[in-house]
Amino acid sequence: MGKKDATGPRLPVDQYRKQIGKQDYKKTKPALKATRLRAEAKKNSSGFRDAFLVIAAILFCVLCVYAFFYLNLSTEMDLDLDVD
Question: Membrane-spanning regions, if any (predicted)?
Fold first, then answer.
């Protein structure tokens, strides 16, 4: 079996695409390290964000229940005072 590139003359577009593909692999070590660090930071930060959102949702629900009972009880107490 022959190589993929061993075929006859190619179009300039194919040569250009091959050249661009080769350039993509020529990344320096600092660039690769920075990319890896960004990916790790993104992966790690999502855990904290998810935990914060869960805690915020629970607090919001508790606050809604508290406000509901507070408003209901405060109106009953006002009615008791008006009867006298």
Answer: 51-71
